[in-house]
Specification:
Layout: E1 7-8, E2 13-15, E3 23-26, E4 33-34, E5 38-43, E6 50-56, E7 59-65, E8 70-75, H1 76-79, E9 94-96, E10 102-108, E11 135-141, E12 147-149, E13 157-164, E14 170-177, E15 193-199, E16 204-206, E17 213-219, E18 225-231, E19 242-247, E20 253-257, E21 291-292, E22 298-305, E23 308-315, E24 318-326, E25 337-340, E26 349-355, E27 371-377, E28 387-393, H2 407-414, E29 418-423, H3 432-437, H4 445-460, E30 464-474, H5 476-487, E31 494-498, H6 504-507, H7 514-519, H8 533-541, E32 555-560, H9 568-579, E33 585-590, H10 600-617
Length: about 625
C-alpha cells in the first residue's frame, strides 16, 4: 500500500469524586478511526464543536461536527476566496473564536483575479514548503457561511500561527519578513519575524522587538497573558530559545525563561523545540513543556486540557506509549496512568555515554564542553562472538538524538547490529555554548567528536567488533559520514549516506538556506552577500569532497530528486569521484522525494538497502 495512515482513538477516563485531581479508572479504548484525509481539526471552547479541514478529490472542505451529526459543510475550493489551506507546522492553524461564531485559518493567497505572467518566478519558503508563497489569514462566519480574507497585514510580512485575541475582534499572528527574498523556513528558528496584532478593521501593530525571530504564541485561558518563543536572526539555524510573556493589559513584555548557555548536570538545559498547542494550566499560572532527556527517557507533552496532561513516552527499547496525569499542586508528584501498553517491547541493552574531548580537541573559545552518545545493542549475539557497530549520525547539525524510540536504530539492533547515536558538540539540548562552538568548525570538530565517541565505546565495551564498523547518516549526518570514511579510510568498512552535503562551495547557489552555508564555515551572512574566493575556499576546505581520493569503504548514496536544502547533485559529485577511481559505490535516486526522504515507499527502500549494504560489507 505504501501510504502513511493516520487514525484517532478515544479513551474514557473516570476521575475520583473528591477534589484531589486523580484518575480512578481508564476504560478500554474505542476502535481506531481513520483520519487520513483530515488536514486540520480543532474543538470549539464551549460546545466542543469539531471543525475539520478535509481533503477530497480536487477540493478542500470545512466541516463542522457536533455530538450528533455533521452540522455544516463548506467547499472552500469552490468558494474561490483563497488557494490551498496551509496544514504545515510553520504557518498552519485552525482557531475558534470565543463566541464560536468565527473560525480562523491560513491559506495561500488567491491569484484568480490577478493578471500575472505564468513565466514569472514565484518564490516559496523552501524545503517541504515549496507550494507555499503568499499566505493570508482567512475567517469563516459560522452563521452566514461566508469566508473573508483579513486585510492590513504589512506587505513585506507572511502571516502564520494565528489565533484569536480576547474578545474575538482581533487576532495575534507571527509574521515572517520575506524581503528582499525568502529563505528556507523548515527546521530554521533563526528567521526574522515578529509577533503582530491585527484587528478586523485592518489596523496592525507589532508587539515584539525588531530583528528577532519569534514563534509559537500561546494565550492563557484567562486571556491575560500571551507567551511566545524568541531567538536570534541568522547564526545557527536552530538554537536555544527564550520564552517571553506579554501582559496584555499593561503591554509589557518580560522574559519567562532565558537562553541557557551552559547547563550544569541535571539542570534545565533550555528550550529548543516548538511549544505544544495547549500548554497552559487551567488557572493560567503555569506553562508546561516537554522533557527531552539525553540520559534516560523522553516525555513529550502533546497537550494540556483542564490540567490533564497527555504525554508520549518512549526509550530506545520501548515504542511510544500514551500516559495521562493531572498537573499537581506545588510540591506534589504526578500520578501517571498508562492508557495503552506498547504492542511490543524489545530487550535491547542501551546506555548513555558522556564523552570528554581530550585537550588537543577542546574548543578554545568554548572550552570544557562535553558531549553525549547513546549506545543500543542486541541483547543476545545472533551468530558471531562480537557485534558489528553502526555509527548513526544525526543531521542538522543543530538537532539531537534523545534517548527515545528510533525505528532505524531498533531495526538494526533487531538484525544483530549495535548502534551508536552520537550527539557531537553543536547538537541541541546541551546549551547555547555547545551550539555556537560548531560555527566555523564543521568538518573538523564534529568529525573528531564522532570519532572520539567511537573510540570511547570500543574501549569500554569488548563485545563490539572494531574490525566491523560502518557509518550512516543523512544531511549533515551524511556530510560527517563521508568525512569519516575519507579522513579515517582504514577504520570504517561501509558507509550509507542520505542527501549528504559533499561540497559546500558548489552547494552555495542551490540551497534554500544560503545563510547557513556562510555561517557554518564562520562567515557573517547578509542578504546582499556576493561569494568571495575566501568564502568559497573555506567551504571547499571543510567539505568531504577534499578527502574523496582517500575513501576505501563502499559507499551507498540515497538522494531525493526534489531536495531544495541539499541538491541531489551533491551526492552525484561524490558518486562520480568514486566511480572514476573504480571504488564500490551505489546510488539510489528517488525523483519524487525531498530532503527528508519521507515517503513511505522511500523509507522502506532506504532501510532495506542500507541493511543489505551493511550485511554485504561487514
Amino acid at each position: 500500500m505504501c501510504s502513511r495512515l493516520r487514525y484517532s482513538q478515544q479513551w474514557t477516563l473516570i476521575r475520583d469524586s473528591n477534589e484531589h485531581k486523580s484518575i480512578r479508572t481508564v476504560l478500554p479504548p474505542g476502535p481506531c478511526v481513520p483520519v487520513s484525509r483530515e488536514l486540520l481539526s480543532g474543538l470549539s471552547p464551549i460546545r466542543s464543536l469539531r471543525a475539520v479541514v478535509r481533503e477530497t478529490v480536487g477540493h478542500q472542505l470545512l466541516e463542522i461536527w457536533d455530538q450528533h451529526c455533521l452540522r455544516k459543510c463548506l467547499n472552500l475550493t469552490a468558494l474561490n476566496k483563497h488557494g490551498r489551506v496551509y496544514d504545515d507546522a510553520q504557518f498552519g492553524c485552525l482557531s475558534w473564536s470565543e463566541c464560536e461564531n468565527k473560525l480562523l485559518y491560513v491559506a495561500e493567497k488567491s491569484t484568480h483575479d490577478e493578471e500575472s505572467d505564468r513565466s514569472v518566478y514565484c518564490e516559496d519558503w523552501g524545503e517541504a514548503l515549496t507550494n507555499k508563497s503568499v499566505p493570508v489569514m482567512c475567517v469563516v462566519n459560522m452563521q452566514s457561511g461566508s469566508v473573508s480574507v483579513l486585510q492590513g497585514v504589512p506587505p513585506d510580512v507572511s502571516p502564520g500561527q494565528a489565533l484569536w485575541a480576547p474578545g474575538s475582534q482581533s487576532v495575534f499572528f507571527v509574521g515572517w519578513y520575506h524581503e528582499p527574498f525568502r529563505l528556507g523556513l523548515k527546521y530554521c528558528s533563526n528567521r526574522r519575524s515578529a509577533l503582530f496584532k491585527l484587528d478586523l478593521d485592518g489596523n496592525c501593530e507589532s508587539l515584539s522587538g525588531d530583528n528577532l525571530s519569534v514563534s509559537c504564541p500561546r494565550l492563557s485561558p484567562d486571556g491575560s497573558t500571551l507567551i511566545y518563543q524568541q531567538g536570534q536572526v541568522f547564526g545557527p539555524h536552530s538554537q536555544c530559545l527564550s520564552l517571553q510573556q506579554l501582559d496584555l493589559k499593561s503591554g509589557k513584555t518580560s522574559t519567562l525563561l532565558d537562553v541557557v548557555n551552559r547547563p550544569h548536570t541535571g539542570e534545565f538545559a533550555g528550550v529548543y523545540e516548538a511549544l505544544p498547542p495547549c500548554c497552559w494550566s487551567a488557572d493560567s499560572q503555569r506553562v508546561v513543556n516537554s522533557l527531552k532527556s539525553l540520559m534516560s527517557f523522553v516525555w513529550k507533552l502533546l497537550t494540556v486540557q483542564k490540567d490533564l496532561m497527555v504525554v508520549c513516552c518512549s526509550s530506545p527499547n520501548t515504542p511510544p506509549t500514551l500516559r495521562v496525569g493531572f498537573l499537581p499542586s506545588a510540591g506534589e508528584a504526578v500520578t501517571w496512568q498508562t492508557l495503552q501498553q506498547p504492542i511490543m517491547t524489545f530487550d535491547f541493552h542501551w546506555t548513555v555515554l558522556d564523552v570528554t574531548p581530550p585537550q588537543d580537541e577542546d574548543n578554545t573559545h568554548y572550552s570544557g564542553l562535553d558531549f553525549g552518545a547513546v549506545l543500543v545493542k542486541p541483547s543476545r549475539l545472533l551468530h558471531e562472538a562480537k557485534i558489528p557497530l553502526v555509527v548513526f549520525i544525526h543531521g542538522g547539525p543543530h538537532s539531537q538524538f534523545p534517548a527515545e524510540w528510533n525505528t532505524t536504530t531498533a531495526g538494526l539492533a533487531k538484525l544483530g547490529f549495535a548502534v551508536l547515536m552520537v550527539n557531537y558538540r553543536g547538537s541541541t539540548g546541551f546549551g547555547q555554548d555547545s551550539i555556537l562552538s560548531l560555527i566555523g568548525q564543521i568538518g573538523s570538530q564534529d568529525v573528531k567528536d564522532v570519532q572520539r565517541a567511537v573510540l570511547t565505546v570500543l574501549r569500554m565495551d569488548n563485545t563490539l567488533d572494531p574490525k566491523r564498523l560502518a557509518v550512516i547518516g543523512g544531511s549533515h549526518g551524511g556530510f560527517l559520514s563521508c568525512h569519516l570514511v575519507g579522513q579515517y579510510p582504514e577504520f570504517y568498512k561501509a558507509c550509507a549516506a542520505r542527501n549528504p552535503v559533499i561540497n559546500a562551495a558548489t552547494l552555495l547557489g542551490t540551497s534554500d538556506i544560503v545563510d547557513w552555508r556562510y555561517t557554518s564555515v564562520g562567515f557573517q551572512y547578509s542578504y546582499d552577500q556576493i561569494p568571495t574566493a575566501e568564502a568559497l575556499a573555506a567551504m571547499l576546505e571543510k567539505s568531504p569532497i577534499r578527502h574523496a581520493a582517500q575513501i576505501k569503504a563502499p559507499v551507498l548514496l540515497m538522494l531525493g530528486g526534489r531536495d531544495k536544502r541539499v541538491s541531489p547533485h551533491q551526492g552525484l559529485e561524490l558518486y562520480k569521484a568514486l566511480k572514476s577511481r573504480a571504488l564500490p559505490v551505489r546510488l539510489l535516486w528517488f525523483p519524487e522525494d525531498g530532503h527528508s526522504l519521507s515517503r513511505v515507499d522511500t523509507q522502506v527502500d532506504c532501510f532495506l538497502n542500507t541493511v543489505l549494504w551493511l550485511q554485504q560489507h561487514l
